[in-house]
Input
Amino acid sequence: MAFQINPRASGPKTHLPVCIVIDRSESTSDIRDLLNQGAQSLIRSMKRELTLRGIVELLVIQFSNETEVTVSFKPLEQVREHDLDIGKSEGFTATGQALLTALDLLDQKKMEWKQSKAEKYFQPLLFLLTDGYPDAGIGAPPEVEREIAETYAQAAQEIRERERAKKLVFVAAGIQQQNGARANLEELRRLTCFPDHVLRASDFSDGSQNISQFYQLIHESTKAMYTGTPIDDVINQLWKI
Output
């Protein structure tokens, strides 16, 4: 059942930036189909949402040891069902660099809107899905390991600063595979001032707190941002038991 949100009585038609950062490192190979199916369902459901049309702009970043912007601030109506699909799972997990890229692009877009008197925007929503932890890979040189750790620490600092200033809403799903990789939830909690925004998501297709459910949470959180409903209310109803 969808989270019930009271409709917004009135308000300007503004930009609502939604950024999804998706882990596609080698360890996601067994759950790639689940990630893709969840993303496809998200796009279908959001495009049916009348209140989000003409407002939501989607930024999607996929990462392993490299960061790729796969959707760059596309209006929701222009996003295709398979635009979020992971084509191949490979490499290690440079989470920090992917998050820093997301924050930088969000800041640039906000500045662009701010400089135009006709443009208004909501503060961004930033979602992270990962089944691992900051990792340079087996046998990586010390300088690479150091870079992975430093970029993660920097991303954590910048996210927390924006959260304290109420300039960002951040929510993460730490995926726990039944027979594979498991995200380090404690490491993920370092990223945020709000530990309850770090959720444990399973790869069980019939579970109540799984990958598909997290994509539904992205949809409902986006509606909540537009209507002024606290994100914690969405998390409490959709996730917490």
About this structure: The chain has six helices and six strands. The longest strand covers residues 67-75. Residues 3-12 have pLDDT under 50 and may be disordered.
